[in-house]
Amino acid sequence: xxxTFGCPHCKQQMVVDATGTGSQIECxxxxxxxxxxxxSMTNIHTANPIASSAAAREEKHFAVPVHDAPAEALIKKPxxxxxxxxKEAQPQVRIKCIKRTDCVEVGxxxxxxxxxxxxxxxxxEDIVVIQPLAYTHMDIGTRALLTDYGVxxxxxx
Length: 157
Ligand SMILES: [Zn+2]
Fold this sequence. Notes:
Elements: E1 2-6, E2 13-17, E3 24-26, E4 33-35, H1 48-76, H2 79-88, E5 93-99, E6 104-105, E7 108-109, H3 111-120, E8 127-138, E9 145-156
Antiparallel strand pairs: 1-2, 3-4, 5-9, 6-7, 8-9
Bound molecules: zinc ion.
Residues 7, 9-10, 12, 27, 29-30, 32 line the site of zinc ion.
């Protein structure tokens, strides 16, 4: 006579010869040591469909972490562009203002020359914007306020 019983740990259904009652066997499902029950206790048989579905549900639960793994990878991915952005933002935006009066040497207006020289030191890609600059200054000779111009260069460096 064979006994059919379910493993108390994993619900694995096992068929054991009646002479095995009371002996300990290793469950083929979970590897736990299981004591073979008395013949009278083998009515677990009827509960087996439920037990097996419970086991199936358990398997699904175990499968969840597997699905989590790629999700974590997806969360990590957006971090990379941020790091790249931080590296790109490293060069500071600087402003260089060149006033025309600062470029006048011994009566010669070297404004264009000075601006050209400064721009020549920059990479064209680093130049953000070049804006005209208007300012007033007091003429030393006449003590009058004069409006003059210059240029403001916004660049990365
Ligand atoms: Zn088991």
